[in-house]
Fold this protein.
Amino acid sequence: MESNKYCKALELDKIIARAVEYVLCSEAKDRLWQQPATQNAEEERWALQQTDSMTTLLLKNGSPRFAPVSGVEGIVQRAAKGGILSMAELLCCAGVLRNFRTLNEWYHLTEHDMLPIDDLFYGMTPQPGLEKQITDSILSEEEMADTASDELYQVRRKIRQMESSIRDKLDGLIKNSQSSKYLQDAIVSIRNGRFVVPVKAEFRGEVGGVIHDVSSSGATLFVEPTAVVEANAKILQLRSQEAAEIERILEAFTNQIASQEQTILFGYNCMLDIDVLLAKAKLALAQNATMPLVTEEGWFCLNKARHPLIAADKVVPIDVELGKEYDTMVITGPNTGGKTVTLKTAGLLCAMAQHGLLIPAQAGSTVCTFSDYLVDIGDEQSIEQSLSTFSGHIRNIVGILEKASPSTLVLLDELGAGTDPAEGAALAVSIIERLRKAGARVMGTTHYAEMKVFALETAGVQNASCEFDLESLRPTYRLSVGVPGKSNAFLISEKLGLPMDVIKAANVHLSSDDKRLDSVLAQLEDLKIQLKARQDEIEQLKYDAEHQLESARKKRDALIQQGETELEAARLKARTMTQQVQDNAYALMDEMRKLQKDEKLAASQKAQRAREIARKETDLLFNKTDVVHTVVKEFTPLKSVKVGQEVLIVELDQIATVSSMPDRNGLVEVRAGILRTKVPLSKLAAPNKQKKDKPQTKKQAGRSATVQRSSSSRDSRMEINLLGMTVEEALMEADQFIDHAVLNHISPIYLIHGKGTGALRSAIQAHLRGHRNVKSFRLGRYGEGETGVTVVELK
């Protein structure tokens, strides 16, 4: 982070400190602290896109696991210069390679489009072979594994064998009754890398060997017995071979690291950048932050902006904008009302965005790039430098006036305070005018009424105020743009118990101009509240309308999609049926040719067989359609009618009496029983003679209906020929035929299975007993086919 003064004044340093807490590598922490602000809109936009992309990956893949490492750049460069790396340094390099691998695996956990951070992940080249060799060979910073090389394994095996032989000899010496009395303790220890036994000083001459150490009291001598001197020397020699082999292994690993210098260093820099971006992303998730838009036109608009250092349950979101319709905002209101927080929130969020940090504001907020933030916030009083509060502010403002430019944001708290009110107000107006001439964007807070009037009368300067609840005497911290704030000193004093006569006396001393201004401000505030309520209502209505429109669009799209799907299915079925009809036609022609060639059949039998084949194929074709095929009735429509004339309503097949002549639309009013309706003249016909017969008795009607249903009303749609089929084929055809009949409201139906052995009839009737659509069934009567036909009544 830069050492600019605004970083501390806006508390950006505290935000960076929170992000640093999420960083793992110490070098990445330094990188985040020292990261400068972006200098143009393109850089700022790219930095925000990188952070936003990392935030998206965090949400999709969870947090990656990688170990903190440091000092890798110096280690790799030393290896490249010919130095031999230690086991600790090689383990550090292996840790970096492991991070390369785990971060790449984490990046590819889910599929995604190209991201602005792709280059960082592709810049890390995993070396799984080298990583495994190092971690398998080096167990810790001071221990090399026996399996690091065959030579090392053999040397260490010999060392262990020699040590075991020496221990056996010394154990024999300790356990020997003659020699054990010369020993201080029955133990074997090591001095100067050699095995020794503790001998009492007074028996030095009784145990031959080399003295390697003496106890502090001088009572014990640590002697290497003569019997193991040669073995100990052999161990020292093997230890030297072991050290040489370890050095050779370290050198071999160092050479591999040196050969990958550029790859590792480039990947390491990418890893540090990823560590920084992960910290920014985690901070964004913790703050519920979003990526703002970035404009190059020098204005910002923050919607529902929240100060990130205020607790989430206490912070009040504000809407603040500057630089688009007005370049200066003057904020007024009571103390502790949130004026300073508003200044800091606006400046801090813009500065955060320039450091690549997502901001705690509503999506769709817009920021811009400032070359500097010129801030005068807080008490600048200095006892050491003999500066008053006013003097401290003026010194700051002098520097601000020198640096102000069109690309700077100026934040001034309590402008003109600390001196005579009249002079302070005049000075405040003059300072703002000078800053506006320099082209700077300005936000300032004040209590001066002159500043409120200045904002009201000056184009490009906007009033704003922090609202105050007079009932609870507490600030609401909400920013109200367009209305200057009131101090409400009299009302607050009254609430707090100040005598009314004192307040009335104070009101007398108030100038008429001040009274008029307070009255105007009160009216403006009331108007602002009404407009805000109306605006909220309009926004709600707009939201509801958009929601309903979106819902209607979705329904429309769903219906269109459904229609297209059904149309495609219908086309497919039509193509399939066309092919089947064509195939059936060829098969029918072949069957006809066979009948013509069959000399054993008479002509009448051939004709009957041909009719059966044709009817069967026609029924199969009808069964494969979902369309209800109705017979078109042929009739001769009446050209004219008379009142009282009996007519036949063709569509209803019902006799009716004409009640009135046709109207201008050709509609005739008729009465059929208790029903009166209007029917087009073209749909009326002369009644059949049978319709005019006398009505039958119920008994006769029943017998007549039975005969008609069983014989005269039977047609090809009501029967299916199952002759010649296997049981399985017949049951399948029967099921399809029953389903078709149910859909077309046809009942009864006739299943023609023939007499034969009765096996097909038995199988069909057994199947019908459990069928869900069958009401009853029976064998055919005389004239229906008798036992060769099963008559089925459907539900």
